[in-house]
Amino acid sequence: KAGVTQTPRYLIKTRGQQVTLSCSPISGHRSVSWYQQTPGQGLQFLFEYFSETQRNKGNFPGRFSGRQFSNSRSEMNVSTLELGDSALYLCASSVGDRQNTGELFFGEGSRLTVL
Amino acid sequence: QKEVEQDPGPLSVPEGAIVSLNCTYSNSAFQYFMWYRQYSRKGPELLMYTYSSGNKEDGRFTAQVDKSSKYISLFIRDSQPSDSATYLCAMIYSSASKIIFGSGTRLSIRP
Fold this sequence. Notes:
The complex is a heterodimer. By secondary structure, chain A is mainly β.
């Protein structure tokens, strides 16, 4: 069974640019969550999508957005990049039904560097 | 105050030692408790999962939840160099809520 696939794995952008990250969940998983991981803040929840609808949202500014497609694949977008957006962005999928028990399957992440 | 507190370490122990990793939390509404392991340059992977108070054992790993003290632990017996990783605790209120992660403890097992 293929795992969670994230692309691109590494990318470098400059301040003010925007970036789109992609995530393909495990086949059959309908929930996709996004996290930002930095050495100082740890794993911070961005948002979760289930059946193309945002189900939960973290405390990030509106520059961070996401969406989910009918095949459960998800994208997240960060506009007007700032230096502080440099981080590892992790996508996690789960079955996502009503019994969301926290069993997440993570991808290897997209490492974003903002110069 | 963070909802979930975890000592960042690093924690370094010799091979074969028993390792104890801990998290405390502030909200008694948490029901599900998890431990994730993250190797360098990889995403976290689910290691242990428990519901409510009690112990759960899986091979060399034991997860313990004490809801009265708002304290969870992960014990690793006969630790191996391959156990060297960052360990993150995580917890969730209910099926509709987001998962809250601890900041992670970096563990190193010396051969």
